[in-house]
């Protein structure tokens, strides 16, 4: 979803929890096709990828837990809508100065246009 929807910076790291779906060779191959570096926490150490772990907790608590999806397509649609609408556009994130990710990304784009060299060091924060 994100690969199709957003321009890709020069380097991207895909942080994930230790879910088995992220360890499959097919998934790793899809990341490689797009030039994306996978990253996963060490066993028993969720602090390696604390932001990814926190995202997964939020997704499970606010969308998945207690839901009765009609099937895989319904789950994909509803989880995708939660991520795009609620998580990216509405939900405020303390790590992003209490902005939603889309608003934070837009502010970075505006800063880049106004002062391209001033935020060069922030580009590796993604």
UniProtKB/TrEMBL annotation:
<dbReference type="InterPro" id="IPR050900">
    <property type="entry name" value="Transposase_IS3/IS150/IS904"/>
</dbReference>
<dbReference type="InterPro" id="IPR036397">
    <property type="entry name" value="RNaseH_sf"/>
</dbReference>
<dbReference type="Pfam" id="PF13683">
    <property type="entry name" value="rve_3"/>
</dbReference>
<dbReference type="GO" id="GO:0003676">
    <property type="term" value="F:nucleic acid binding"/>
</dbReference>
<dbReference type="InterPro" id="IPR012337">
    <property type="entry name" value="RNaseH-like_sf"/>
</dbReference>
<dbReference type="GO" id="GO:0015074">
    <property type="term" value="P:DNA integration"/>
</dbReference>
<protein>
    <submittedName>
        <fullName>IS3 element protein InsF</fullName>
    </submittedName>
</protein>
<feature type="region of interest" description="Disordered">
    <location>
        <begin position="107"/>
        <end position="126"/>
    </location>
</feature>
<dbReference type="InterPro" id="IPR001584">
    <property type="entry name" value="Integrase_cat-core"/>
</dbReference>
<feature type="domain" description="Integrase catalytic">
    <location>
        <begin position="1"/>
        <end position="109"/>
    </location>
</feature>
């Amino acid at each position: 979803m994100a690969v199709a929807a957003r321009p890709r910076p020069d380097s991207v790291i895909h942080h994930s929890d230790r879910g088995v779906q992220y360890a499959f060779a097919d998934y790793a191959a899809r990341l490689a096709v797009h030039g994306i570096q996978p990253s996963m926490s060490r066993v028993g150490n969720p602090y390696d990828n604390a932001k990814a772990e926190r995202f997964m907790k939020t997704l499970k608590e606010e969308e998945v837990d207690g839901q009765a999806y009609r099937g895989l397509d319904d789950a994909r649609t509803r989880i995708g809508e939660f991520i795009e609408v609620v998580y990216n556009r509405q939900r405020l994130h303390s790590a992003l100065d209490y902005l939603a990710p889309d608003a934070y990304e837009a502010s970075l784009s505006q800063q880049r246009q106004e002062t391209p060299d001033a935020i060069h060091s922030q580009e590796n924060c993604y």
